Amino acid sequence: MPIDATLPYDDSNIFARILRGELLSKTVYEDEYALAFHDINPQAPLHILVIPKGAYVSWDDFSERGSDAEIAGFVRAVGLVARDQGLVAPGYRLLANVGLDSHQEIPHLHVHIFAGQKLGPMLAR
Ligand code: 5GP
Known about the structure:
Elements: H1 14-19, E1 27-30, E2 34-38, E3 46-52, H2 59-65, H3 68-84, E4 93-95, H4 99-102, E5 111-115
Antiparallel strand pairs: 1-2, 2-3, 3-5, 4-5
The structure holds guanosine-5'-monophosphate.
């Protein structure tokens, strides 16, 4: 079910539980501001999710309430993961769903990194 990204943060969401260590994930990278792990249902040969450690519902929420340090730390982490995975030369796609029309399912901000093949058009036609 897609979520309404204007709703308040819900501490019981799956990514909050991963951050608390209650659920396992295949970690790719972790620092003070971000955690990156493999998507459980990959949509490309490489499909990584990067999430901020803070409790933010969406990109909208994060860009409004996140501190400068959190935002810089998170954005740098996304770039670092892509470089560490060797994705800059072949290329990759970043995607962050926000709310109902985008079909965001987990109400904790996550940036998808897709790579490993030609990724096709940006949107389904
Ligand atoms: P959204 O549609 O909200 O942008 O993306 C949610 C993503 O989270 C989906 O790609 C889905 O496969 C992934 N996902 C859902 N549950 C889990 C889980 O328990 N572990 C991991 N690693 N990924 C999950």
